[in-house]
Write a structure and sequence with these properties.
Catalyzes the epimerization of the C3' and C5'positions of dTDP-6-deoxy-D-xylo-4-hexulose, forming dTDP-6-deoxy-L-lyxo-4-hexulose. The protein has helices at about 30-35, 165-170; strands spanning about 1-5, 10-15, 20, 25, 45-55, 60-65, 75-80, 80-90, 90, 100-105, 110-115, 120-125, 130-135, 145, 180. The chain has a single domain (about 1-170), classed as Jelly Rolls (Sandwich). The chain is globular, with a radius of gyration of 16 Å. A hairpin with a 2-residue loop joins strand 3 and strand 4. The chain has a six-stranded antiparallel beta sheet, with no helix packed on it. The protein has a five-stranded antiparallel beta sheet with strand order 10-8-12-6-14, with no helix packed on it. A two-stranded antiparallel ribbon has the order 3-4. The protein has about 190 residues and is mainly beta. The longest helix is centred in the N-terminal third of the chain and has 6 residues, at about 30-35. The structure holds dTDP-4-keto-6-deoxyglucose (T46). DTDP-4-keto-6-deoxyglucose binds near residues 61, 121, 122 and 139.
Length: about 190
């Protein structure tokens, strides 16, 4: 397991080992003990999500769940290719409003750990792209929120993305009154 830090404290890039042979490959996509042995203690996951986006240029985000049901997410790409982004919205964070993006694909097997306190979104780079992610809290529609994809200065490298109705009318980051507080060292 390769573990890389990012410029946003708490956000990690994880790359599980792949055992390739003449049939293809095998990989442990999630193993708590492997991470704990490497000094990474993630919260408990209680829900797995899986979505498929038919067209390249489909953008889902920027989403969050506010307290009391904030969600940390461990994200990977099961098929195709996508650009995954986390935006720091923890009040008081030295990187408030900053974003980190990375290409996740079936080919590269990379995963992005995004703690609670971040907006999350992605744009697909290929048709029929599937995203699979583990969440640290259950879906709570009353806590579900969105911030406009184009209001955080993110270089999505996409023009006219395919959006849900909800995402098309979301608030801007400038108008967002974050419910998350920076807890240094977390
Ligand atoms: C998120 C979620 C949704 N739903 C239902 C609610 C809607 O009827 C339907 C589609 O939901 P939505 O349009 O919010 O799905 P996405 O646009 O893919 O949203 C997700 O995409 C971004 C990138 C995320 O990080 C979040 O997990 C989530 O916000 O699934 C559920 O039943 N459970 C859930 O956990």
């Amino acid at each position: 397991m390769q573990i890389e830090t990012t410029p946003l404290a708490g956000v990690l890039v994880l790359t599980p080992r792949r055992f390739a042979d003449h049939r293809g490959f095998f990989s442990e996509s999630w193993n708590r003990r492997t991470l704990e042995n490497a000094g990474v203690n993630l919260p408990e996951f209680v829900q797995d999500n899986h979505s498929m986006s038919r067209d390249a240029g489909t953008l889902r985000g920027l989403h969050f769940q506010s307290p009391p049901h904030p969600q940390g997410k461990l994200v990977r790409c099961g098929r195709g290719r996508l650009f995954d982004v986390a935006v720091d919205v923890r009040r008081g964070s030295p990187t408030y409003g900053q974003w980190f993006g990375i290409e996740l694909s079936f080919e590269n097997g990379k995963q992005l750990w995004i703690p609670a306190g971040f907006l999350h979104g992605f744009v697909t780079r290929e048709p029929d792209t599937e995203i699979i992610y583990k969440c640290t809290d259950h879906y709570a529609p009353e806590c579900d929120g969105a911030v406009r994809w184009d209001s955080a200065g993110i270089d999505w490298q996409v023009k006219g993305p395919i959006l849900s109705e909800k995402d098309a009318v979301a608030q801007t980051l400038a108008d967002f009154d974050t419910p998350f507080v920076w807890e240094s060292g977390k």
